[in-house]
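Figure 3 (text version): structure tokens given as input.
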């Protein structure tokens, strides 16, 4: 048995930047969507120890609360020299106020505390997307993009840690890139490529 697709598809996120990117990526598929924020659904506590676990937790909670098929995203920045931190705690490093300027400074400080030069430090973004329906069926996909860090932060586009991340082979950070350029190579876009075929098949069924 596979995940059934409802109309609309519920985006299980309250993060406006993340929602904007997901909506842009779903647009070509012509799938009607709504969001957890629009339905005033509570945000579950993320108690998982992996991106997959937290993504599934959010998708399950939204599907059960709404009766709709839910699409959840758990993503984060992994810095190799920090043992892949902040990782699943990427949002928590920004605190309740979502202060990513402080979170980016913490990355810088943590690297220096370990004797690692922040400029050019290896890092990668991870995105795990999970579809869940009210029956409890789930479907996971994962996308990654590797690159290096740069300080001070550069660019006003994007969100989160985008201004300090420069993908391999590029001269701009995610914070400097135009949305279309970022969507072509981002971790979230790569996860969506893996999910697209499933969504198209489910929509046609």
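Below: residues designed for each position.
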């Amino acid at each position: 048995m596979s995940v059934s697709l409802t109309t609309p598809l519920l985006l299980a996120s309250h993060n406006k930047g993340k929602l904007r990117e997901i909506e842009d990526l779903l647009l070509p598929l012509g799938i009607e969507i709504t969001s957890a924020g629009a339905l005033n659904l509570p945000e579950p506590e993320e108690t998982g120890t992996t991106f997959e676990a937290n993504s599934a937790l959010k998708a399950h909670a939204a599907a059960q609360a709404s009766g709709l098929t839910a699409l959840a995203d758990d993503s984060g920045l992994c810095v190799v020299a920090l043992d892949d931190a902040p990782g699943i705690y990427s949002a928590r490093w920004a605190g309740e106020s979502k202060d990513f300027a402080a979170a980016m400074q913490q990355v810088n400080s943590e690297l220096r505390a370990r004797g690692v030069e922040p400029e050019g430090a290896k890092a990668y973004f991870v995105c795990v997307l999970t579809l869940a329906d009210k029956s409890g069926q789930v479907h996971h996909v994962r996308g990654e993009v590797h690159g290096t860090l740069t300080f001070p932060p550069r660019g006003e586009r994007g969100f989160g840690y985008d201004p300090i991340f420069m993908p391999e082979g590029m001269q701009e950070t995610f914070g400097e890139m135009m949305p279309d350029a970022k969507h072509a190579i981002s971790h979230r876009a790569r996860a969506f490529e893996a999910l697209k075929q499933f969504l198209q098949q489910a929509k046609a069924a």
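Helices lie at 16-26, 51-66, 90-93, 100-113, 179-185, 187-204.
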